[in-house]
Amino acid sequence: MPEKQKGSKKKTRVKLELTRRDVLTLAGTTAGAVVFATAVTTGPLTPFANLKQSQLEGTQGEGEGSTGRHHWGMLINLDTCIGCEYCQRACSATNDVAPDMAWNTVVPSVSSTGRRFYTTRPCLHCQEAPCVEVCPVHATYVRPDGIVIMDYDRCIGCRYCQVACPYAARVFNWEARQDENLFVPTWGNPEIERRPRGVVEKCTFCVHRIDDGLANGLTPGVNPGATPACVNVCPVGARVFGDLDDPQSPVSRAIAANPTFRLRDELGTQASVYYVPPKEGL
Amino acid sequence: MAAIPAASERRPLITPGFLGWLAFVGLLILIGLVAAFIVFSQGLVVTNLTNIVPWGLWITIDLSAIALGAGAFTLSAVVYLLGVSRFRPMIRLAVYLGFVGYTTALLTLVMDIGRPDRFWHPWAFWNVHSVLWEITWCITLYLIILVIEFLPVLADSRYFRKYKTFGRVAHTVHRAAPALAVIGLGISLLHQSSLGATYGILKARPIWFKPSMPIMFIISAVSVGPAVSMAAAIVLAWTLKRKTVSMDVLRTIARFSGLGLLLYAYIKFWDLAVVTYYGATPLAQETFRTLGEFTPYTFGFWVGEILLGIVVPVVIFLTPRFNRRPGWLVLGAALAALGIVVNRWNVTVSGLVVPLVYNPGAPILLAPSPYQPALIEWAIVLGVIGYALLMFTLGGKFLPLFGESAQDDLASRHS
C-alpha cells in the first residue's frame, strides 16, 4: 500500500519486471515465430508456392493451356467503331452475361473537336493489374499468357478488386441469376456456365476458346474458333486480336501500322488492349 | 491477488431497468438476425450497393469498430511496455472493448462478403501482395492475443472461479502479457494503418491515392480508441453505481486523446491543403466538385469530421473546466467516435460515388451515382450494435473488468 501511494504522488511510476526467464521466453517465441513464418512463406509448405512459380513470376511458367509463349492482346480502333454494341451482345451470349453486368461496355464519348465516338472496353488484361494485387485470396491472377482471370471457386466476394480496377471492368453477382439471356441464340450460345451468386466476374478474352483452340492447332486472332466472340462479330473490323509477342500476328501488325494509346497508361497498368484514336484526335 | 467482491454482488443482480435495457438490446439483435437471414437467403441484391458503389455502410462500420477498439493495444502498450502502471486499471476494460469492437467488425464483414461460406479462404490461399490479406491475418492474430490477454479476467469471474486449473493456466499465460503487448502493438499499428492503405494504395482513385491515408487512419484510431475506453469506464461507473477507474487516470486519457486529435487535425490540414490546393489534379478537383454537388460530403467533412469530431472533443478533453466532469468526457468521446464514423463513411463512399474516368472524351457525360444505404443495411447495423451493447452490458455486469482497480482507487483517493 505505501508503494501505491508513493506511485500515485509521482503519477508515473516506471516499473520493468523482466526476469531472465521472461527474456528467454520472449526471445524463444520471436525466434520460433520467425522460423515458422520463413518456413511457411518460402518453403514448399507454403500455400502459394505453386502460384509463385507459375503465376506470380509472369511469363516463365507453364500455366493453363499451352501458355507462356504467348501474350494475348487486342487492338480496338475508335476511328472505325460505329457504336453498334454487337461486341457487347455477342459477348453476353457467348459468356452468358446478364445485360446489366456487361463485360464489354460501349460508352458514347466526345472528342475535343466535338465529334462523337464510342469507347468500347473489354477487360484490358493489365500485366500489372491493380485488381490482382489487392485480392486477399489470390482468386484473380495474371496467367503467363497475359490473361487476367478469375477463380470463381476461390473468390470470397469482398469486391476489393472491383474497387481497385481503374477501368470498372469487374461486375459482382449480387444475386443468384434467374434471368433469361435474350441474346441467345441470336448472338451466339453460352459456352461457359453462369457464375454463382456472390463472386466477381469479368471479361476473359474468351479464354476457353483460346485454350481449346491452341489444343486443336488453331491460332487465336486468325481462326474464329479460337478468337474472342467480340472480335469475330464486329461488323467493321474495329477489333483485332492476337499474340502481342508475335510480330507477325494480326494484332501486332495492326499496332505497328497505327498510332495507338492505352487507357490510363500513366497508372503503369501495362494493359494488353491498345486503342487507335479517332482520326481528328481525342 | 484475492478477488475483490464486486459491488454488484451486494445488490440484486437483475433490476427492472436492467431487464428493460436487455429487452431493448435483444430487440436490436432480433432485427439484425432477421435482416441477416434475408441477406443470407437472397444475397447482397437486397442492399443498395451497386457495381459502381460496391462498398458502403457495412464497410464504414467495420472500419469504425476496429478504429474504436484501438484503445486495447494503445493502453496495453502504455502499461506493459512503457510501464506506466497507473493505467493498469483500464487494461481489462480496454482489452474487452477491443475484443467487442473486433468481433463486431468481423460480424459485419461476414455479412458483407458475397461468399460467407468461404470466410476462411484468406487463411488458406495467400496473396502476400494484398493489404486486405494482411489485414485479415492481423485481425485474426490480434483477436487471439486479445483473448489470451483477457483469459485471466474470465478465470477471475465468479463463474469460472471454481475451475482452479483454468485459472492457473490463464494466469500463467497472462505472464506473457508484455510479449503479447509487443506483438499486439506491432500487429495493431500495421493493420490499423493498413485499413487506410486499403484506400491509399488504389491508384485508380484520384482522391484516395495518397500516402497520408494510412497515417490519418492510425492517428485517429490511437486518439479516439482510448477515449472510448475512458467513456466506457465512466458509463459503467454510472450504471453499476460503483467506482471503476479514478477520475485522475480518466482525465489523463482524455488529455492524451485531445493531443492526439490535435495531431490528427494537423495532418488532416496539410492533407487537405495538398489534395485540394497544392497538388490538386483536374480529376481530383472535378471529383470534389461533384461530391459537393451531389452528396453531403462537404457538410459531413466540416461539421461531422472537423467541428464535432475534432474541435469540440479537443476543447472538452484539454480544458480543465470540462475535463473535470465525467459527463463532458463521455460527450467528448461520443463526438470523437462520431467523427471517426463520419470520416470512415466519407472516405469509403466518397471515393466511389464519383464514377471512374478511364476513357477519353467521356467524363463530361458520366453522372455520379449517390448511395443511400437500404433499410436492410441499417437493420444489420442495428443488429451488430445490439451485439456490441449486449457484450458491453454483460461484460460490465458480470466480469471483473476492474478487478485490479479497487486498490488503485483507494490510493488515488488518499492523494
Number of domains of chain B: 1
Question: Biggest interface, which chains?
Answer: A-B, 71 and 64 residues
| SSE series of chain B | HHHHHHHHHHHHHHHH
Binned, the helix content of chain A reads: 25-40%
What is the annotated CATH architecture of chain B?
A: Up-down Bundle
Describe it for me?
The complex is a heterodimer of chains A (282) and B (415). Chain A is an alpha+beta fold. Chain A has two domains: 41 residues; 228 residues, Alpha-Beta Plaits, CATH 3.30.70. Helices cover 29% and strands 14% of the residues of chain A. Chain A is built from nine helices and nine strands. A three-stranded mixed beta sheet of chain A has the order 8-1-9. A two-stranded antiparallel ribbon of chain A has the order 2-3. In chain A, strands 4-5 form a two-stranded antiparallel sheet. Chain A is elongated. With 415 residues, chain B is mainly alpha-helical. The interface between A and B is large, with 71 and 64 residues.
